[in-house]
Protein: TonB-dependent receptor
Organism: mine drainage metagenome
Amino acid sequence: LSADVTGVAATWQQLLPYGFGVMINGTWMHSNANFNDYSTLSNQFALTGVGSSANGTLFYQKGKWQARVTVNWQAKQLLLIGQEQGGGAFGNEPVYQAPYTQLDYAMNYQVDKYLNVYFNANNLLNSIYHTYGRFPNQTLNLIEYGRSLSFGVRAKF
């Protein structure tokens, strides 16, 4: 068995006036070994983990202040072949990850060379991780991680 994977990755970073900036990167991937959801063959060959993704960050960094807003996107991808059901693998059934988008925020202030105050907010969109079988309405897992907020102080001694 053999397969081809083609892809392109690109990154762009630009500093803007007044301490602002932007970073964007993306990866496009494609394989000629895809799972055929409409086939009843039990010996299909497909590559897992092949999927496109993109990230974008707007940032501010000036003096003692830093702040970032980042969005991460992951396209649909085949995670594995062989669903776990009832404690064991279930044949040659696919498990897909649905497209996923997450928005994060981070800010910190450098009080002096020894003390830093920070605030992080992750998954602001409260995105849900969704896996499914052959078709999107065959839900296998819905995982709601929720939003995560953290605030703290870092000290160097």
Notes: The chain has one domain: 5-34+46-155. The chain has a mean pLDDT of 93.
